[in-house]
Amino acid sequence: MTDERYLKRTIVKETVPSRYLPEQARNLRIFLPPGYNEVLSYPVVYCQDGEDFFNFGRIATTATKLILDEGLEPFIIVGVDVDKKLRTEEYAPDGERHANYIRFFAEELIPFVEERYSARQNPEHRLLAGDSLGGSVSLHLALAYPQLFTRVMSLSGAYYGVSQHIISEAADLSWLSIYMIVGLQEDAYETDRGVFDFVALNRNTRALLEHKQASVFYEEKDGKHQWGFWQKELDKALCYFIEVE
Length: 245
Known about the structure:
Layout: H1 4-7, E1 10-17, E2 25-32, E3 44-47, H2 50-55, H3 59-69, E4 76-80, H4 87-91, H5 98-116, E5 126-131, H6 133-144, E6 151-155, H7 161-169, E7 177-183, E8 189-191, E9 194-196, H8 198-211, E10 215-221, H9 227-241
Parallel strand pairs: 3-4, 3-5, 5-6, 6-7, 7-10
Antiparallel strand pairs: 1-2, 2-4, 8-9
Helix pairs in contact: 3-9, 7-8
Protein name: Enterochelin esterase-like enzyme
Pfam family, one: Esterase
Organism: Paenibacillus endophyticus
């Protein structure tokens, strides 16, 4: 039986206008923590695949439990929707829409949220989160805009060759903090680009990031490339970045 306190929550829907995206707008869903007060300011978790994080990841429920029961500092969650048919083109660094999506996120979405909500406006209080290609696009956002983003939560990141090459070309990454998990049963996962060993992709990426002096939390555990695995990991990942009050 779910505690009723966890179900009483505020989720606002917004639409961000855009000059960079062909459809000229993108939908968001925004979780406001219990006791949200515009006089205060809050860390923000920005989730790729926003609809999935809320519906399959149940991140709003997890956040509410952590704030009410574990004493975590209240935080805002922004879920950024994506058209699944265009997802690879936006999230993969060699996708046709990738450059425009990155610019939209950093130059339009962030100011939109920070003008309307009591969001902290420094990099250490903005967390980028994503699963699979959502994890890799989160890292590429940080690499492109280190003045905005220094923290990344990567759930089974899809770090294909092009992503690994970009990381290998990066300069010092000692400013970056990344939380990486991958499931041991993800060693032959079929994607729209072929079958990949996600364990190997993540191991290689971890080594590249550590070589560049990034701060990396890395864990492999039993799990498949699906929300049944990632949902159970969200509380630990959030606690890694959000402090107890």
